[in-house]
Amino acid sequence: MKTSYISKKEIIIGEEIRCKDIRDGILSLLKSDFPDLHTEDYISIDELNQYRRLYLTSLVVQERGELAVIDSDVIKAIQNNSILSEDIQEELEARLTVGQKLADIVARFGGSWIFIITFFSFILLWIITNIIFLSSQPFDPFPFILLNLLLSCLAAIQAPIIMMSQNRQEQKDRVRGEHDYKINLKAELEIKLLNEKMDHLLIHQSKKLLEIQEVQTDYLEDLLKELKKK
């Protein structure tokens, strides 16, 4: 059994990684923490994966400068192997105040065909009532000044309420955009990490195949020598 240079513990057979086989960027990061580390020393696959994640963090810092809060959340998710994909709709709805919920209801109703039909029916009923049924003593005779006043008040109140709902919608879209950005960034970094692991497996497998070929070559040479002697 090989012993890990980092933890000084024995490594399970098959999980030992020789430092010579590690990518230069990750090896440099290891040597920054362990200056006396040599290429012939061994570490475990779990320790290598830990430094792979740290290497990804350093790559993000180099590309973007100082880590933003969103980037930090992504890096923590990668280091903890946690999932970022979640339904944020329930969380957004749970934060709503009574006024915000009321604004959404008014905005939905004000932008529907029900409101348009009801609104025009009310205006038509108002006009017919004052012209036909109350023609002798209308409470709002032509040109319907009271109706114009009511419509102006309705527009003055409805407009800011709808703007409140639209501002909330923009906030929700921004939260969704940040959430999608986190998922995409995590997926990109995970793909890089996966490529790193695949490269390591291919290199390790190629070396094993070369060793097998060398053993087979030695075996054939021994057989040829035996045949020549006979």
UniProtKB/TrEMBL annotation:
Which keywords appear in this protein's UniProt record, sorted alphabetically? Membrane, Transmembrane, Transmembrane helix
Its domain of life reads Bacteria
| Membrane-crossing residue ranges in chain numbering | 113-133, 145-164
Q: What is this protein called?
A: DUF1003 domain-containing protein
Q: Which organism is this entry from?
A: Chryseobacterium camelliae
